[in-house]
Amino acid sequence: MFPRVLLVFFLLSEISAHGIDEDLVITWEQKEKLDEFRTIMEPHLPHDYMKTDIYLIRWLKARNYEIPAASRMLQENLWWREENEMDALLDEDWTEFNNQYRFNLDGCDGNGAPVFVLFAGEWDMRRAALAGQSEKMRRYIDKCFEEASTVLRNMQARGSNATRANLILDLGSLSFQVQACPRWAKVGFQKTRIYIMEVPKLTGFFTGIPFYLYLVQSLGAHFPNVINACIVINTPEFAVPLWNNMIKPVAPPEVRKLVDVYGRKRSEWREALLTKYGIDFTKMSHEMGGDGRDPVDSNDLRKSDYLYECPELK
Q1: For the segment 122-147, what is each residue's pLDDT rounded down to a tens digit?
Q2: One GO term of the cellular component aspect (predicted)?
Q3: What is the pLDDT of residues 55-113, one digit of tens each?
Q4: What is the CA radius of gyration of the chain?
Q5: pLDDT digits (tens, 9 = 90+) for 194-234
Q6: I need a labelling partner for 30 at 20 to 30 A (CA). Which of 79, 186, 202, 245 fits?
Q7: In terms of Cα–Cα distance, which of 111, 141, 112 is closest to 128?
Q8: Residues 273, 309: one domain?
């Protein structure tokens, strides 16, 4: 009899065994739970990719291999996808939003996992809210995650070992006055807190915060274990307490574990990218400080039918 703790199964039917990571190695007990989970959920899954081990195991991991909880989570996601017509999401015209709210694919890490860069500091959330585009903004956030998931599936289908993507949130252009509150609000800053000096009314204050809350909540509820790490860089001082006090407490636990926040000292986050996440910034685009090829934006990703190959593998 094989030891239950030591026996592992390589999911060779879907991804080659070279460069195996934690998503491709499971114990015998976990394999039994995966088989049971598949038996329960497979009749309800509308797409073949949802029936693969790589897809199913994401939901089990998100609920610590508790089958009833994982089943509820996945079923609720299926209802959500149907209600929000997620299968047609990437076919919608996102050209304007893609240009205004940049989301790029900028190379791969040392294990061949794609690196996406979301320039959240440039995203004028307040503008979207005041223009009555809040719902579309939330849908656009889901579109970005759907694109990352689609790129991963296509990479796997072509022999890649990548099971998760890396996400960098660049807050370099973040402005509290522009993104968080209207012009009439006078805001003061201290090292660990934000205080309002004069606010005639609160309507519109922190209009950007709900979008960031939605980002972390949707990532946890609808795209579990799609992201390997969420690295926030160029974070201004005022944004740290916003994360610690407003966003982090309501983020799903599995999402909180993914997020690391770095300030505007480039040497620190560049060192962390390389040593902690295996992302060599010198191989990224010029905008990220490297000398690699230009990034692929969402418009070009769509034109390529979401096919991508790591630059060093070409």
Answers
A1: 888 878 878 888 899 999 999 999 99
A2: cytoplasm
A3: 999 999 999 999 999 999 999 999 999 999 999 999 999 999 999 999 999 999 999 99
A4: 20
A5: 333 333 333 333 566 788 888 988 999 999 999 999 999 99
A6: 79
A7: 141
A8: yes
pTM of the model: 0.84
How far CA 164 is from CA of 92, 167, 270, 271, 298, in Å, comes to 25, 10, 21, 21, 18
Domain of 12: which CATH number? 1.10.8.20
| Phi, psi (deg, nearest 5) at residue 68 | -60, -45
Q: What is the pLDDT of residue 117?
A: 97
Q: Is residue 161 part of a domain?
A: yes
Q: Looking at the chain, which runs of residues are DSSP E strands?
A: 8-10, 25-27, 103-108, 114-118, 165-170, 186-189, 194-198, 227-233, 259-261, 296-297
Looking at the DSSP bridge assignments, the partners of residue 260 are: 231
Tally Cβ neighbours within 10 Å of residue 1: 5
Residues 6+ apart with CB under 8 A from 119: 101, 102, 103, 104, 170, 172, 173
Q: Which of 68, 76, 70, 67 is nearest to 32 (CA)?
A: 67
Domain match, 61 and 105 both? no
State how many domains the chain has. Answer: 2
